[in-house]
Amino acid sequence: MNENKYLKWMSSETKSVYWHDSAIVSEMEEAMSNGAVGVTTNPFLINGTLRAQPEYWASVIKDVPRDLKGAVKVEALMQKVTGHIANILMPLYETGDIRVGRCCAQTNPNKPGDAKTMLEQAKRYATWNPNICIKLPATKAGLKIAEECAALGMNVVVTVSFTVPQCLAIGAALQKGFDRARKAGITPGLGAAVLMVGRLDDYLRDVAQDSSDVVTESDITQAGTAAIKRAYKIFNERGYEAILMPAGCRGAYHIKSLSGSNMIMSIAPKIASLLAKEEGPFKEEIDIPVPQDVIDRLMTMPEFRKAYEPDGMTEDEFITFGSCNRTLDQFVNSGWNPIEALQY
Known about the structure:
Elements: H1 5-13, E1 17-21, H2 25-33, E2 38-40, H3 43-52, H4 54-58, H5 70-93, E3 102-106, H6 115-125, E4 132-137, H7 140-151, E5 155-159, H8 164-183, E6 191-196, H9 197-211, H10 217-220, H11 223-238, E7 243-247, H12 252-256, E8 264-267, H13 269-275, H14 292-298, H15 302-308, H16 322-341
Parallel strand pairs: 1-2, 1-8, 2-3, 3-4, 4-5, 5-6, 6-7
Helix pairs in contact: 3-16, 5-16, 6-7, 7-8, 8-11, 9-11
């Protein structure tokens, strides 16, 4: 296994927690040797592992009927993959630390506005393994179901989220669910609010190239960081129990700038390999603000203001935000639909 001194430092000497962002088990094993304590998956990653390592998964999925079709087929294959990973993580889950030992399973990205379908799916997923996290979209409907799932004691990760207003809405919805659970005598599970920092940067880069003469590439690479640092500050002020989860990172800088925070870092193998090149001594950077002149230039773009201001969007607008559309499209057309078409 390749040693990653940065990730070992971050996961052992700071409040930050490291989850591996891939469904390929050999990559997961290396990540765990460097401090990873959970796994994030989505339809894109599950499709990737099933196609990249068919020999590995053949014995795991051998009893999945070959005549299944549509969403039933996808769920059956997802259950096998996430269940296999969840079983590997079970010793960590049994330590009792709510931040560790969990694996994500995402609801159908074709249905981000269908609350009824998402709740039905979530209830099925929750029966697979006790350490499965139900992954829901940060849409108006998804937030409604996130609260319901949290109230039932499920582990919930709300994704397809790129902005401060989305994260704050997630934090509020999950808090309501946690409070309802306790009133019903149920111990709450994990609640996490994703902010896909790199995907926000990607979207704003295109916006800036199309409409801005003042925003620089350096500004763009700090946009997602600025958003999640603002969300983190407000989460702490409001006392939300949900934990922020930076994801969709595009460089080591995304993780480094958040080091020392009480966040669950979703780190893909490519980003882990970049962090492995870092040389110590390492330092926590969560309290280092994004420079004000960077914020000022980014604020000249209405799309950044939507992402950065706590009231930049209403819940009705979440599903129409540019990054949301792009990401759901990838999860559908490079994940869910290809799993439907998979021959095994």
